[in-house]
Amino acid sequence: MRVLVLGATGYVGSRLVPHLLEHGHDVVAASSSAPRPDRFGWDDRVRAIRCDVTDPAAVLEAVTGVDAVVYLVHSLDRSDFSDRDRLGAQTVADVVAAAGVRRVVYLSGLVPDVPEADLSAHISSRLEVERILLACADDAVALRAGVVIGAGSTSFEIIRQVATLFLVQPVPTWMDSSVQPVAVSDVLRAVDDALTDDGPRGAVDVGSPDVLAYPDLMRVVGDQAGLSRVRVPAPVAPAGLVGLGTALATTAPFHTVTALIESLHHDMVCRPEHTWAPRAGGPLLGVEEAVRRALTPMYAGPEGALPSDPAWARGNPLLDVLPLPASGRTAARLALHRVRALLPGT
Question: Where does the record place the NAD-dependent epimerase/dehydratase domain (predicted)?
């Protein structure tokens, strides 16, 4: 198939493009910034283009001649992400419907089993985009995923940095809700299935075999990193204050962190009757193994780090060789990130 990947330079997109090539597809890799195939190691089998999903003319040019569209665009790094994502999704949906593209795959988010009025702005936006895109094509599918595990994944990197920085970790009691993470390699497999004629359709949940609480996920990260940490319940911890503190304690984009923290109040688990199972069979990757791969230096699989990952998610070569404890290295990396943010041109 000829597959258009919108948001190809993001975390999942940077893993998906070579994965699709390995499975024999032609790929059009689109991003909102100027294309830089050399940064990602893409060869001439990839057509790299610039495409603003809010621009109908640019979207029409991008979808012309493709068999399927994979939509990975999210704007959590902006304060107005809901408006931006709604406009982008509606623009793409209108163009896709007019062009007759029948297969659309959207990477959405797990939706808690609560009234929609109680959903966070982040999850509400994902659900809104999902509905727009599912309505535009007969063979559309929304793959709902929670925390995607892999080096460079925003949600995973936030957890890793918090679990590494503090020797004593205050954990709000409202964060005892359950989460069902998924390895990025299984997300890629789910996209594979969604592109087939007899693959899943509609909204399908994607998760690992493991369901655990957020503090336990932090423990797994610490254990796999060989770190001993103490987690202390914090009964009084407003979500806004926790979001601000987490944003200040990590190198991830501010608005992304605060939006994600707001989503931790509810269980983020798969619906048993609407959960993806691989067509080819074989087990899904467990959380501990996925985290081990993500923390293994130079790991060559999808969970491993890539040179193309954003600077805030990568280690610093100098700091990595200094004889510092993990918490000291993380603190130094955070301080260096803050200094760079204050310098013009960086």
Answer: 3-197
- Which segments of 65-144 does DSSP mark as H helices, in order? 81-99, 121-134
> What six digits make up the tokens of 139?
């063979």
d(CA 56, CA 64): 12
C-alpha dist (Å) from residue 113 to 21, 89, 127, 269, 323: 37, 24, 13, 9, 47
User: What DSSP line would sit under 126-151, residue for residue?
Assistant: HHHHHHHHHTS-TEEEEEEESSEEST
Give the span between the Cα atoms of 40 and 250, in whole angstroms: 25
Q: Does residue 178 register a pLDDT over 90?
A: yes
Instruction: Compute the average pLDDT of residues 322-345.
Output: 71
Q: Strands 139-145 and 148-149: what pairing?
A: unpaired
State the Cα–Cα distance between residues 271 and 135, nearest whole angstrom: 21
Mean pLDDT is lowest, of 89-93, 184-188, 331-335, for: 331-335
Sorted by where each starts, the structural domains of the chain and their CATH numbers stand as: 2-146+182-206+269-279 (3.40.50.720)
Query: Token digits for 5?
Result: 């990947």
How would residue 260 be classed by pLDDT, with cut points 50, 70 and 90? confident
